[in-house]
Amino acid sequence: MELTADNIFQQIDDQCFCLAILPSEVLQTTISILGNLMQQNFYVAYDLLGKKLSFKRMKCKTVEDYYDHDEL
């Protein structure tokens, strides 16, 4: 999974960006959580039998062209 700046930083205003990653210790857990910012522009596949999680970059334009903007 290759992330871009858009998947890692949240723009607060014209001159301020926040890193959108926290260490798991902050959440008091040993698991990692991929939030919605990191998952944007990716297809996510869940293989329950194989116990695998897969990601593939997608083009949002493809989704926008498929659906009417009112449906999104």
UniProtKB/TrEMBL annotation:
GO terms, molecular function: peptidase activity
Organism domain of life: Eukaryota
Start and end residues of each Peptidase A1 domain: 1-56
SUPFAM superfamilies per UniProt: Acid proteases
Residues spanning the membrane: none
UniProtKB keywords: Hydrolase, Protease
Entry annotated with the keyword Hydrolase: yes
GO biological process terms on file: proteolysis
Pfam families listed in its UniProt record: TAXi_C (PF14541)
Name of the protein described by the UniProt record: Peptidase A1 domain-containing protein
Originating species: Castilleja foliolosa
